[in-house]
Each structure stands twice: as C-alpha cells, then as structure tokens.
C-alpha cells in the first residue's frame, strides 16, 4: 500500500524490495511502531510512528547499506528524483535540514483510497495516541507535502493538529503539524 499511496517517497522510488526491507526494519525496531487497521485479510490503513525520527533513516541505512546502495545505483540513471536526492545529499544543498522536534513523529500514514472517508485514518491516529499516552508522551508531530491540493491538510486540522512551519527538506516542501495530547487523548480515550 505504501508504494501505491506514497509514489513520490524515496522508499517507493527505490523499489519493491527496498520497501519490503524498510517495513521489516520498522517492524523489528524498538524505536518505531507500525499500526495497521485491517478488515479480514485486507489492509485498510497503516501508519509508522517513530519515537526517534531524527535517526530513523540513519539507522535504516546502517542496518541495510548494501540493499539501499544497490537499489539506489540501479535507479540513478533512470529516475531524476532519486538522482536529485542523492546529489543534494552529496553536496551542501542536501544539508538544508529543518529543525526536528525532539518528540515522536508519524513518518508515514495512509488509508486505502476505497476506505477513505470511513474513519480509518481517525482510527489509526487514535491507536497512535493511545500508545503514546500509555508510554507517557504528551505530544507528537508529523509532516506532509506542502501542496495545497493535498487533502491531508484538512484531515489533520479536523483532528485538532496545529499547523506549524513550512520546511524545505532535500527536494520537497513540507508543512509540519503538531498535536498535544491532553486529558482524554493522553489516556487513550476516544478522539
């Protein structure tokens, strides 16, 4: 589902094998949590929450350098976005890092298009907030593509997120959203 719903993500652009490796890594990590909302044998929505988002990609690369390197080399001549990403990482242009809040981040969230508008995204976020409250976290954030046509903006605002700053990371603009858990949200009660 990641590859279908996040076609521009670097994980998607580097191929099915790397996407599978990434999700195996996330599933095994003690610093990431994978939330899946499903019905029978079908995944309706999912989310990856990182408790240490500032180091997630560094840890993934360190754990799987050969897989990542091989997939990147295969796609460099064919995919301009991968080429631009690698070039920016190798030059000063790739070091334009936005400040990363020291709190958990939803690093991926998606809902099957056929299931959108049915409360699946809300249920996934509720699962995240229940777990964060259980672990004693009082807030978290996420970022999403800054494109104003992105329907996620309205969704996050409906859920009570505060829109934050605009940031340029690597080759894309993002809007940061922040949510503070209070009272019932921090204890896992319904949103």
Task: Describe the model.
With 191 residues, the chain is of the alpha+beta class. The protein has a single domain (2-180), classed as Aminopeptidase (3-Layer(aba) Sandwich). It has helices at residues 2-5, 10-13, 16-28, 56-63, 65-75, 80-90, 120-134, 152-158; strands at residues 32-39, 42-50, 105-111, 139-145, 162-169, 172-180. Strands 1-2-3-4-6-5 form a 6-stranded mixed beta sheet, sandwiched between helices. It is globular, with a radius of gyration of 17 Å. The two termini are 25 Å apart.
SSE blueprint and pairings:
Blueprint: H1 2-5, H2 10-13, H3 16-28, E1 32-39, E2 42-50, H4 56-63, H5 65-75, H6 80-90, E3 105-111, H7 120-134, E4 139-145, H8 152-158, E5 162-169, E6 172-180
Parallel strand pairs: 3-4
Antiparallel strand pairs: 1-2, 2-3, 4-6, 5-6
Quick synopsis:
This protein is of the alpha+beta class and 191 residues long. Helices cover 38% and strands 25% of the residues. It is built from eight helices and six strands, in the order H-H-H-E-E-H-H-H-E-H-E-H-E-E.
Low-confidence stretches: 92-96, 186-191
CATH topology: Aminopeptidase
Query: What is the level 1 CATH name?
Result: Alpha Beta
User: What string gives the helices and strands in order?
Assistant: HHHEEHHHEHEHEE
| Fraction in beta strands | 25-35%
Give the radius of gyration: 17 Å
What would CATH call the homologous superfamily?
Answer: Gcn5-related N-acetyltransferase (GNAT)
Q: What is the residue-mean pLDDT, rounded to a whole number?
A: 81
- What percent of residues adopt helix (DSSP H or I)? 25-40%
Give the class from helix and strand content and strand pairing.
alpha+beta
Apparent shape: globular
What's the β-strand tally?
Answer: 6
């Amino acid at each position: 589902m990641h590859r279908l719903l996040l076609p521009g993500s670097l994980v998607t652009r580097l191929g099915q094998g790397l996407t599978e490796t990434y999700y195996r890594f996330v599933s095994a990590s003690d610093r990431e949590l994978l939330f899946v909302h499903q019905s029978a044998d079908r995944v309706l929505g999912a989310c990856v929450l990182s408790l240490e988002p500032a180091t997630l990609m560094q840890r993934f690369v360190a754990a799987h350098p050969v897989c990542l390197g091989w997939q990147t080399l295969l796609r460099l001549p064919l995919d301009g976005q991968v080429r631009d990403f690698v070039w920016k990482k190798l030059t000063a242009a790739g070091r334009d890092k936005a400040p990363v809040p020291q709190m958990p981040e939803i690093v991926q969230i998606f809902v099957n298009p056929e299931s959108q508008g049915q409360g699946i995204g809300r249920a996934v976020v509720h699962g995240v907030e229940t777990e964060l409250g259980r672990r004693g976290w009082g807030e978290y954030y996420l970022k999403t593509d800054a494109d104003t046509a992105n329907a996620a903006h309205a969704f996050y605002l409906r859920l009570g997120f505060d829109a934050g700053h605009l940031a340029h990371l690597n080759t894309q603009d993002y809007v940061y959203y922040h949510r503070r858990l209070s009272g019932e949200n921090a204890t896992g009660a319904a949103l």
